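User: Here's a chain of 386 residues. Predict its fold as tokens.
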Amino acid sequence: MPASVKTLSPYSDSPMKPTLKPQNPNFSSGPCAKRPGYRVDALLLDTMGRSHRSALGKEVLARACSETARLLGLPKGYRVGIVPASDTGAVEMAMWSLLGERGVDVLSWESFSAGWVTDIVGQLKLPNVQHIQAPYGKIPDLTQVNFDNDVVFVWNGTTSGVKVPNGDWIPNNRQGLTICDATSAVFAMDMPWEKLDVVTYSWQKVLGGEGAHGMLILSPRAVQRIENYNPSWPMPKIFRMKLGNTINEGIFRGETINTPSMLCVSDYLDALQWADGIGGLSALLARCQSNFDVIDRFVSANDWISFLAIDPATRSTTSVCLLLKLEDVQVKKMVQLLEDESVAYDIASYKDAPSGLRIWCGATVETSDLQALIPWLTWAYSKVKT
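Assistant: Prediction complete.
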């Protein structure tokens, strides 16, 4: 090749304003983009105006639980329930119902995991707590975890873009329970269910559902703890999972503790049906990986942008957090510029995180939209840098 000929990366820096825009510019990390082809008028509305306690209401709610278990491939004996207050409510319900029987190890490396530390230490005031932490961009030393204790952690740090690399660090012969906040990982990452005793998530993340409802998945070990242990503190009604000395099985059959939005339930069932139709869990994971790969190639080709997650093995494939060689005020201008151009909405980093971008790459995002976004990032960067 002649010396005068230069091979350009598809992501080369260019001051030219792109012409192609993402068809869907919604890259928020929650609530997340609706599924491709979504239409409100396609939802089943026969439950509207009906009691959630009616035979129809309970059947639809139970279907949301059973279809979740089927699509996730949960082990036999695992229970799935719909609980109040999104993923936050599900995690709180688990902690207030299960913790206190033994010591607790709690891991934190970003905003939401730090919140669970506050609850465990400041609200529940548990006496035997080991807090294992790491700064934004890193993950705690997983070898320090004592599995004779209960262990509370997030699978994927939504505000840092840092995830646990796998489940190899969790032993099969653990004595304590593993309580995993997996709201931006379920339906997006390979979860070793046999190593997880409690898993929580919310509809508005990977499947692009609506908010306010949490999902609680319990292993048989977690159920055994609930039935054999009574916390010493008062238990609010929305956290109670027992009837007498046995677990309230109704929660896992569609008999919710409080009144759910049946419209949101229909929306969630629509997302599950879409997921099933495109190939189920494996297809969802593949879509997330394909989306992440677009960002990964772009970062590799440009020295002005980098992942907040330092170790490649811990980089999230959903909430992708990026650092820029810009001042904070320039980052804000870049984010606003992309929004003004109707190219990308809600991609600023979380308020407590280092200044940068957070681009959702979950399964409901089309890879073609991320490919269309990439040149705009370069253009916007060049505009605010000069």
